[in-house]
């Protein structure tokens, strides 16, 4: 007789097999579905959801199949069921406390942004080294000193650290966050961080996103030019297929680079 999976085991097995690009899209579906639930919608068709999320419907159905969700013909998906399934698979059934380090332009914006707590990411600590900032409340939370990162993060059980310092400070900030027990780092500084292999790092680089957009605009111009040149030539297509960038909507995110540093047993991300 096959073993019955323990509660949650099934979710863990499923989560392991989901490609990272699909994980990014699940987060988008969750945002869209939460908005629909707020408006009182109880069911949604895959066409409606794919249009609202900007993802083609075949890719959407494939993504939702990772959850074991296939919808009902003629009815679609139950919004609340999908919300719960995605929250479970993304580990959002519990809160993840966040610390922001570097309370300059970007850090101020992040600390003041009211949208994180409602989505399970309460900002619980802020750090900087500028004496004019220490003790000053930003978004209702006083800024602590850089040196207190390990103690405060451990005490407040911070699990995600956001780095918004100049690049030269980012590695030492990262080391302090790791010492404080954070498990994940969201890095805005344009620098490659060295972390132990059990730490998850995401790098946010708006310039890279803009370059990807630029690539797609250039591709579109090339395609239009080729189509114009081919017009009237027998046997040649007037258009070409766009590049599939993995997220099904032409936005090209979900990139992640990782390798090893070949010595310290660290992962370079
Ligand atoms: N990824 C992106 O898309 C993106 C966009 C904008 C900015 N950035 C990057 O984000 C970072 C912050 O940008 P900004 O415009 O907010 O800079 P900023 O100069 O306004 O703020 C930096 C803050 O970090 C503090 N700081 C400096 N060294 C520190 C240390 N060792 N520990 C703690 N705090 C320290 C400074 O006192 C300051 O308050 C930069 O690295 C910038 O390149 C990234």
TrEMBL record:
Instruction: Please list the residue ranges the record marks as binding DNA.
Output: 28-67
* Subcellular location(s) of the protein: Cytoplasm
A Gene Ontology molecular function term for this protein is: DNA-binding transcription factor activity
Q: Give the keywords, sorted.
A: Cytoplasm, DNA-binding, NAD, Repressor, Transcription, Transcription regulation
Please give the HAMAP family that the UniProt record associates with this protein. Answer: Rex
Q: Where is this region: Disordered?
A: 234-269
CoA-binding domain mapped to chain residues: 91-192
- PANTHER family on file: REDOX-SENSING TRANSCRIPTIONAL REPRESSOR REX, REDOX-SENSING TRANSCRIPTIONAL REPRESSOR REX 1
What are the Gly residues biased-composition ranges? 247-269
Note the InterPro entries from the entry: CoA-bd (IPR003781), NAD(P)-bd_dom_sf (IPR036291), Rex_actinobacterial-type (IPR058236), Rex_DNA-bd_C_dom (IPR009718), Tscrpt_rep_Rex (IPR022876), WH-like_DNA-bd_sf (IPR036388), WH_DNA-bd_sf (IPR036390)
The text of the family note is: Belongs to the transcriptional regulatory Rex family.
Q: Name one GO cellular component term.
A: cytoplasm
Pfam families on file: CoA_binding, Put_DNA-bind_N
Predominant location: cytoplasm
Residues crossing the lipid bilayer are none
Q: Per its database record, what is this protein's job?
A: Modulates transcription in response to changes in cellular NADH/NAD(+) redox state.
Query: Which GO terms fall under biological process for this protein?
Result: negative regulation of DNA-templated transcription; response to redox state
KW DNA-binding (keyword) present: yes
Q: Which residues bind NAD(+)?
A: 102-107
List the protein's name.
Redox-sensing transcriptional repressor Rex
Q: What do we know about how this protein assembles, alone or with others?
A: Homodimer.
User: What is this protein's gene name?
Assistant: rex
